[in-house]
Amino acid sequence: MTTSYEQLAAMNKAHLWHPFTQMKDYNASDPLIIERGEGIMLYDMQGRAYYDGFSSVWLNVHGHNVPELNQAIAEQLGRVAHSTLLGMANVPAVQLAEKLVRIAPEGLTKVFFSDAGATGVEIAIKMAFQYWRNRGIPGKSSFITMNQAYHGDTIGAVSIGAIPLYHDIFRPMLFPAHVLPYPNAYRHEGGSAGAMEETLASLRALLESRADEVAALIVEPIVQGASGIIVMPPGCLREMAGLCREYGVLLIADEVATGFGRTGAMFACDLEDVSPDLMVVGKGLTGGYLPVAATLATEEVYDAFYADYAEQKTFFHGHSYTGNPLGCAVALASLKLMEERDIVQGVNKKAAFAARRLSALADWPHVGDIRQQGLMIGIELVREKAAREPYDWAERVGVRVCQRARELGMLTRPLGNVVVFIPPLASTEAEQEAMIHILATAIRDVMEFGWGREG
Ligand code: PLP
After folding, report:
1. Which of 247, 281, 304, 365 is the most exposed place for a label (fewest CB within 10 A)?
2. Where is the chain membrane-spanning (predicted)?
3. DSSP string covering 395-425, please?
């Protein structure tokens, strides 16, 4: 017996609590319930088609229902669905670890699996903390993060998060972190150069006075995602990495959003030849199919844990589904497809196409800034363009644009007043054209015609 839309909608309202969602708003309208996907389209229960304009929260690579990926899972399913990595291995987890090391920035040679970006980040910060303890330098125990950073929603990741709306309420239960200014060129009176100078000077000053108590700096390399797709000035990441090295502080690159081709390189760190001490990947690792994340470490970090058991240097951390064979098998298949289809090079061509199309919006009165790195794009809407005056959050302009886009056949989610366009890496130019047309229409309808305004 199949369940009707009406039945599911009622069950949804009765029982499902959605992430990052005010349920009072959600329950006020009929829920969107996705039934299937094909290519870069998602279809709801009523058969309506939507472009996946945000890659199902920034993770889809090859589209949905991809035969090669489906097959990889089916084949692995015929062998074993799950077996633990605690003290033993499984075939695809070993193969994936080896593959990740081959494509990662130089020096990252060890892979620790988990199942979400946030858990990958927890692992990185715990590893960094314990690394210094294992080396007999316990004083190096604090962390540096960047203003407006987002690293996931577990308590450690929230401690090094710096988005007031998401994080402030939890402050009393978090460990404190040093917060550096993030170089946001659009919001800095000195522009790109001034923003970068401020960040680097702050980092140097902090390290000068506090390096002996800092374990690591964590950064979203090149693009700070959840704060509004804010692209770093060129060279900034490389300089930051140099300062960390100079002052003996570990560098953790959180590539959860930027990894696997999204920024036009396999990893954002590659854009500036940066080799971090620890790197976290997730999201696109499985092509957007299954929850697998990984924390990569250098030999030096790993060696600090490698000792006789009695020395108690073991990394006591793990998750039930760590290194899940189905997830690792589909990750391997996705990475193979990426190579066969030259996805990363393709991103650069497609990014140039998107930039040309989006440039038509740059002169629009309420389009403040169009930020892009590869196929990570954010359009910041402002009330007053010359003064860069933001809309009040209560006007919900980002939400309204995304609601209108959905009506017009494309799914995406805003970040405050920033409209996000993060299409699957496999989307064609024709598909991008159609999506950008929807996006532009939605922005015009809300900005010019007041679509969705209350009252
Ligand atoms: N780190 C970054 C940079 C992210 O953008 C995200 C999610 O958007 C995370 C970590 C958390 O990943 P997950 O949602 O898989 O826990």
Report:
1. 365
2. none
3. G-HHHHHHHHHHHHTEE--EETTEEEE---T
- Ligand-binding annotation for 50, yes or no, is no
pLDDT tens readout for residues 191-231: 999 999 999 999 999 999 999 999 999 999 999 999 999 99
CA of 79 to the centre of ligand 1 (A): 31
Instruction: DSSP letter for 289, please.
Output: S
Residue 271 Cβ < 6 Å to ligand 1: no
90-to-69, 80, 84, 296, 323 alpha-carbon distances in Å: 19, 9, 8, 18, 8
Cα of 412 vs its chain's centroid, Å: 15
The reported pLDDT for the residue numbered 198 is: 98
Minimum-distance ligand 1 atom for the alpha carbon of 220: 3
Tens of pLDDT, residue by residue over 17-48, are 999 999 999 999 999 999 999 999 999 999 99
For the residues 118-123, what does the mean pLDDT come to?
Answer: 98
Task: Report d(CA 292, CA 33) in Å as an integer.
Answer: 24
In angstroms, the CA 166 to CA 161 distance is 9
- CB-CB contact of 200 with 235 (8 Å): no
CA distance 343 to 39: 15
Q: Which pTM was predicted?
A: 0.98
Strand partners, 110: 297
Is 64 annotated among the ligand-binding residues? no
Residue nearest to atom 10 of ligand 1 (CA): 151
| CATH architecture for segment(s) 70-340 | 3-Layer(aba) Sandwich (3.40)
Judge whether 32-62+342-449 and 70-340 match in fold. no
Ligand 1 centroid to Cα of residue 416, in Å, is 17
What token pair was written down for 251?
Answer: 């560098």
CATH fold, domain 32-62+342-449, is Aspartate Aminotransferase, domain 1 (3.90.1150)
Residue of 263, 178, 266, 265 whose CA lies nearest to 225: 263
